[in-house]
Design brief:
- The chain has 370 residues and is α/β, with parallel strands linked by helices.
- The protein folds into 2 domains: 164 residues, Rossmann fold, CATH 3.40.50; 145 residues, Rossmann fold, CATH 3.40.50.1400.
- Helix content is 44%, strand content 11%.
- The strands form 2 sheets. The protein has a 4-stranded parallel sheet, with helices on both faces. It has a 4-stranded parallel sheet with strand order 6-5-7-8, with helices on both faces.
- The two termini are 29 Å apart.
- Bound molecules: coproporphyrin III (HT9) and fe (ii) ion.
- The site of coproporphyrin III has 25 residues, from helix 1, helix 2, helix 5 and helix 11.
- Its main location: cytoplasm.
Length: 370
């Protein structure tokens, strides 16, 4: 037992993600999975389908999750953490129910879940918890006895997440022509969500925007310290969907690029702070659509990297895993978090991030599962 790391009571980590199509025939069934019962207009679905077809019907997200899975396994093995890591998705194979069945058959009894979203919101947290509840219920209906599942705290302010993001911004600045580098605006972008969902996010509401503003401020501070230059920054939104009469978070990134151009901003660095990998929302909505807008305006613009499978992010997941394990054992672990919001809660309280009609959600105080 000498220098082995202690993950007790957990006996598995589950990487839980969105999933994406892996070929043209997958695109329509994938979009049907994503939007089942969500009232997204048909035209929006056809349009989003085209984004995928532009890339041969392949989303990069699954390859990115395989790379993260690899990075996690390497990090755990290299640091003496003997904990198996599984992977499952909400919307595409490997499906969550199938991986939870495998986990159950492997005899695992306590599973810690890492969802690939750093922030509180219905889409980034609660919906994953609802998916866990649905899958656990399906396994119970099959006569199996599934394990207990818990979810890792939000990592938006963890140094192992923000460090790689800040380094990505610094690297991107070097890609801009020297003459516009110091005046470049840092344009932090995340997924737009309905105003109503933003208001309901987190234990006390408003967490989605507050957490993003804090992460963006911390990255802007780190970039200022590293470069000795103070640059203006803003938080903007992308990938809006849903019916037009429903208010969603604004401004949209492309409208913001126009505003920057009108204000004579010399350049922009687009920082996809809301996402953990360069998936389709980054490749299409930023690298294709926003890039075209910047070119049309003649505004020099670059896009910085997401954390992806960065070893510092894998190490942060190990740290958060050990932190939560210690807390479950009744110890008082160190909880690293930058800035002023402090470490996020371990257990979502009842009703956290719930939509108007709350569905059963696992891995929280209101979980119907033990
Ligand atoms: C907050 C948030 C994140 C970040 C947190 C997280 O990462 O979880 C995120 C990530 C992602 N969103 C993704 C794809 C899609 N999101 C959609 C629809 C929606 N997203 C929403 C929110 C979010 N989404 C919302 C409020 C909707 C409206 C309908 C609904 O309430 O569900 C639709 C339907 C078509 C459309 O409406 O655009 C698609 C295809 C992919 C996969 C990309 C790939 O394939 O590489 C990823 C990682
Ligand atoms: Fe939550």
């Amino acid at each position: 037992m000498s220098d082995a790391l202690d993950a007790r009571p957990y006996d598995a980590l589950l990487l839980l993600s969105f999933g994406g199509p892996e070929g043209p025939d997958d695109v329509v069934p994938f979009l049907e999975n994503v939007t089942r019962g969500r009232g997204i207009p048909r035209e929006r679905l056809e349009e989003v389908g085209q984004h995928y077809f532009l890339f041969g019907g392949v989303s990069p997200i699954n390859a990115q999750n395989r790379a993260l899975l690899d990075a996690l396994r390497k990090d755990f093995a290299g640091s003496g953490l003997d904990l198996p890591v599984y992977w499952g998705n909400r919307n595409w194979a490997p499906y969550l129910t199938d991986v939870l069945r495998e986990i159950t058959r492997d005899g695992r009894r306590r599973v810690l879940v890492l969802a690939t979203s750093a922030y509180a919101s219905y889409s980034g947290c609660r919906q994953y918890r609802e998916n866990l509840a649905e899958s656990l219920a399906a396994l119970v209906a099959e006569g199996l006895e599934p394990p207990r599942v818990d979810k890792l705290r939000h990592f938006f302010n963890h140094p192992g997440f923000l460090g790689p993001v800040a380094d990505g911004v610094i690297a991107s600045l070097d890609e801009l022509p020297a003459a516009v580098r110091d005046g470049a605006h840092l344009v932090f972008t995340t997924h737009s969500i309905p105003d109503e969902a933003a208001d309901a996010s987190g234990p006390r509401g408003g967490a989605y925007v507050a957490q993003h503003l804090e992460a963006a401020r911390l990255v802007a501070d780190a970039v200022r310290e590293a470069t000795g230059v103070e640059r203006p920054w803003q938080l903007v939104y992308q990938s809006r969907s849903g019916p037009p009469h429903v208010p969603w978070l604004e401004p949209d990134v492309c409208d913001h690029l126009e505003a920057l151009h009108r204000a004579d901003a010399p350049a922009a660095v687009l920082v996809p702070i809301g996402f953990v990998s360069d998936h389709m929302e980054v490749l299409y909505d930023l690298d294709t659509e926003a890039r075209a807008k910047a070119d049309e305006l003649g505004l020099p613009a670059v896009r910085s990297a997401t954390v992806g499978a960065d070893p510092r992010f894998a190490a942060a997941v190990r740290e958060l895993t050990l932190e939560r394990a210690a807390a479950e054992r009744g110890e008082s672990p160190r909880r690293r978090a930058l800035g002023t919001l402090g470490p996020s809660h371990d257990v979502c309280p009842a009703g956290c991030c719930a939509a108007r009609v709350a569905r059963p959600a696992a891995a929280g105080a209101d979980s119907p599962f033990a």
